[in-house]
C-alpha cells in the first residue's frame, strides 16, 4: 500500500507543488464528508435536478452507494427524463434501489414497483426506499417466463452485490414468477416505464409479461443485455436460449419501433426501447 510520503510525491510529480495543498484539502473533505454521512446514517445523491436519499450506516455503505451511483449516472439520467409524475415505474433487478429511489422523487401521483430476488439487497432496498416516499411496492422474487424452482449464482451476500443470477437448467433454489401474474392480480400496477437488469435472463422476463408489454401505456423500456463472457463469470442471454437479435425482434413484435444502444460495455449493452418518440 502506498504510504503518505509516496502519495505526496506522486501528486507533486503529476501536478506540481501547487497541487499538493489542493489534493490534501480534497482528501480531508472526503474524510469529513464520509464521517458526517456515517453519523447521520444517510446520504443524499444528486443528478442534475434529481435527488435521492440512501441509508448509509457505515463507511462501507457510503463508498458502495457512491460507486454504484457513479457507474449508473448516464443511464439513470435518461431513465429519469422519461418518467412523468403519474407514471407506474418498474425497476426489475432493483438491487439496493438506486433507480427506485430516484424514481420515487419524480412520481407524484404515480407508483414505483421494485423487484429484487436477493434477501440481503432487499433489506437495504426497503430502507433506502423509505427515505424517498411511500408510493412503492417491493417484491422479493425473480421474474421469468414460468413459475419454477431455479438454481442461483450468489458470490457474496453483501448489500449491493450485482452478480446474483439465475443459473440456467438448475433447480433447488427460489421460485420464479411471471410478471403478468403480478399485474393480473393488481392491474393498477401495469407499467409505463420499465428498467430490466437481470444478469442474462432479460428475454425470459420480457416473455413472462406476455401481451402486457404490448400495451400502448408502456412507453419506454431500459434493458441491459448480458452478452457471453470469456470467463463465464455470469450467465448471458445466450445461456437462457435467446440472443440480442431475438430480444430486439420480440420488442418490435410488441410494437416498439425505436431501439437505441445507449452504452456498450465489454460484456453487455444498455438499450433504450421506445414505442414512439415523445421528444
A few lines on this structure:
The chain has helices at 4-15, 19-40, 59-81, 98-104, 119-130, 179-185, 202-208, 244-253; strands at residues 42-47, 50-55, 88-92, 111-115, 136-139, 142-144, 151-153, 165-167, 176-178, 193-196, 220-226, 258-265, 268-274. It is of the alpha/beta class and 279 residues long. The strands form four sheets. The protein has a seven-stranded mixed beta sheet, with helices on both faces. A two-stranded antiparallel sheet has the order 1-2.
Features:
single chain; 279 residues; alpha/beta; 36% helix
Chart the SSEs and their pairings:
Elements: H1 4-15, H2 19-40, E1 42-47, E2 50-55, H3 59-81, E3 88-92, H4 98-104, E4 111-115, H5 119-130, E5 136-139, E6 142-144, E7 151-153, E8 165-167, E9 176-178, H6 179-185, E10 193-196, H7 202-208, E11 220-226, H8 244-253, E12 258-265, E13 268-274
Parallel strand pairs: 3-4, 3-10, 4-5, 6-9, 10-11
Antiparallel strand pairs: 1-2, 7-8, 11-13, 12-13
Q: Could you please describe the fold and organization of this structure?
A:
With 279 residues, this protein is of the alpha/beta class. It is 36% helix and 23% strand. Strands 5-4-3-10-11-13-12 form a seven-stranded mixed beta sheet, with helices on both faces. A two-stranded antiparallel ribbon has the order 1-2. Helix 3 packs across helix 4. The longest helix is centred in the first third of the chain and has 23 residues. It is globular. The N and C termini lie far apart (50 Å).
Radius of gyration: 20 Å
N-to-C SSE string, H for helix and E for strand: HHEEHEHEHEEEEEHEHEHEE
Provide the spatial order of strands within the biggest beta sheet. 5-4-3-10-11-13-12
Q: For the record, give the distance between the C-alpha atoms at the N and C termini, rounded to a whole number.
A: 50 Å
Q: Which strand-content bin applies to the residues?
A: 15-25%
Query: What is the SS-derived class?
Result: alpha/beta
Inertia-based shape: globular
Amino acid at each position: 500500500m502506498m504510504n503518505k510520503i509516496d502519495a505526496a510525491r506522486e501528486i507533486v510529480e503529476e501536478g506540481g507543488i501547487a497541487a499538493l495543498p489542493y489534493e490534501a484539502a480534497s482528501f480531508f473533505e472526503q474524510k469529513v464528508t464520509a464521517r458526517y454521512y456515517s453519523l447521520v446514517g444517510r446520504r443524499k445523491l444528486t443528478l442534475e435536478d434529481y435527488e435521492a436519499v440512501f441509508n448509509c450506516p457505515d463507511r462501507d455503505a457510503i463508498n458502495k452507494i457512491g460507486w454504484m451511483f457513479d457507474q449508473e449516472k448516464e443511464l439513470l439520467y435518461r431513465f429519469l427524463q422519461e418518467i412523468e409524475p403519474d407514471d407506474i415505474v418498474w425497476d426489475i433487478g432493483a438491487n439496493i434501489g438506486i433507480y427506485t429511489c430516484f424514481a420515487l422523487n419524480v412520481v407524484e401521483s404515480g407508483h414505483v414497483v421494485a423487484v429484487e430476488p436477493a434477501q440481503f439487497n432487499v433489506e437495504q432496498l426497503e430502507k433506502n426506499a423509505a427515505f424517498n416516499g411511500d408510493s412503492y411496492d417491493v417484491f422479493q422474487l425473480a421474474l421469468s417466463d414460468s413459475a419454477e424452482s431455479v438454481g442461483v449464482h450468489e458470490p457474496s451476500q453483501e448489500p449491493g452485490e450485482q452478480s446474483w443470477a439465475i443459473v440456467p437448467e438448475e433447480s433447488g433454489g427460489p421460485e420464479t414468477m411471471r410478471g403478468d401474474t403480478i399485474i393480473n392480480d393488481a392491474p393498477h400496477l401495469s407499467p409505463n416505464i420499465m428498467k430490466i437488469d437481470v444478469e442474462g435472463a432479460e428475454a425470459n422476463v420480457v416473455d413472462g409479461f406476455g401481451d402486457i408489454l404490448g400495451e400502448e401505456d408502456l412507453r419506454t423500456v431500459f434493458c441491459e443485455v448480458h452478452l457471453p463472457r470469456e470467463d463465464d463469470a455470469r450467465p448471458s442471454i445466450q445461456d437462457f436460449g435467446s440472443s440480442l437479435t431475438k430480444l430486439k425482434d420480440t420488442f418490435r413484435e410488441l410494437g416498439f419501433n425505436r431501439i437505441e444502444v445507449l452504452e456498450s460495455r465489454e460484456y453487455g449493452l444498455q438499450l433504450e426501447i421506445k414505442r414512439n418518440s415523445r421528444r
